Amino acid sequence: MTAPRIDSHMHLFAPSGERYPRGIHALYPRERSALVEDYLQTMDDNEIAHSVIVSLDEHDEYTREVVKAYPDRFSAVAVMNPAHPDPVADLKSRVQAMPIIGYRIWELGDCEVPVRDLRFFPLLEEMSDRGIVAWFYSSPDQMRILPRVLEQLPDLKVVLNHLGFCQTEILMDEWARPRISTEIPPGTLPQVLSMASYPQVAVHFSGHYAFSQDPFPYWDLQGISVDLLSAFGADRLLWASDWPWIAELPGYAALGDIVELHLPSLSEAERGLVLGGNAARILGIEGV
């Protein structure tokens, strides 16, 4: 039996306003939207059983409504607010407002302090206790702290976002998509691959379009795709689309094909794990 397909990282949002406040960026100006009504048809057309909505920022209002309206089709990842004076209280209030399976982490704290003195260590400890996955997308210096955190919190699950590439300035290309300027392979790749020694760490197989210098199917990143498979195995890669940025180019269906194109050695069963089975198991998505 083929595993159900799960999109493990995508975005839905409404135009910014009083009902749905959110940040404003060149990628998502005030009037831009990616509404659930439009995405549902894309899900059906591509046989997606379930999708994980990642809020754009700490404003969860639209995500909350979608998950409440379609609990069988969507799960939610909230996004940390690094400026909040009490990160643990902030997490608790977000969990009270809606069920979340993950929390996007931008930073951990000062690299020079003992790990338990990191500003956000209590937040990560709370997440570990609650079984909330750390959706990690941060800078190279913060990535270097992560193994120390995992030594202290061995039950904290982590998903490294977008092939494990580190967060840098997000620009916008001519297709209104995120564009991350970085060398290929990135200097942090050895560090990312070393994270495979922690069994609670998985990696998103996503975001190729934002880093590649080539058109689809982004052959300049195939070596990285193969390295990730070799390090993490087929049971710790999670396919994702990063909708809506890719809706026009290369298109939703094309990104599903990239698993087979970049990783032709996968068996049919292993491909099913990457395209959905791993997300169901690692993220605790039930009923799909």
Relevant terms:
eight-stranded parallel sheet; Aro_Compnd_Degr_Hydrolases; alpha/beta; Amidohydro-rel; hydrolase activity; 288 residues; TIM Barrel; single chain; Metal_Hydrolase
**CATH-derived architecture:** Alpha-Beta Barrel
String of helices and strands: EHEHEHEHEHEEEHEHHEHH
Number of strands: 10
- Estimate the helix proportion, in percent: 25-40%
Domain Amidohydrolase-related: 6-285
GO molecular function: hydrolase activity
Secondary structure elements and pairings:
Elements: E1 5-10, H1 36-45, E2 48-54, H2 61-69, E3 74-79, H3 87-97, E4 102-105, H4 121-130, E5 133-136, H5 140-152, E6 158-160, E7 170-172, E8 178-180, H6 189-194, E9 201-205, H7 208-211, H8 222-232, E10 237-239, H9 252-262, H10 268-282
Parallel strand pairs: 1-2, 2-3, 3-4, 4-5, 5-6, 6-9, 9-10
Antiparallel strand pairs: 7-8
Task: Describe, in plain words, how this protein is organized in 3D.
The two termini are 13 Å apart. This protein has a single domain (5-282), classed as Alpha-Beta Barrel (TIM Barrel), CATH 3.20.20. The longest helix has 15 residues, at 268-282. It has ten helices and ten strands. The strands form two sheets. The protein has an eight-stranded parallel β-sheet with strand order 1-2-3-4-5-6-9-10. The chain is α/β, with parallel strands linked by helices. The model has no long low-confidence stretch (mean pLDDT 96). It holds the Pfam family Amidohydro_2. Residues 6-285 form the Amidohydrolase-related domain.
Short description:
The protein has about 290 residues and is an alpha/beta fold. The chain has a single domain, classed as Alpha-Beta Barrel (TIM Barrel), CATH 3.20.20.140.
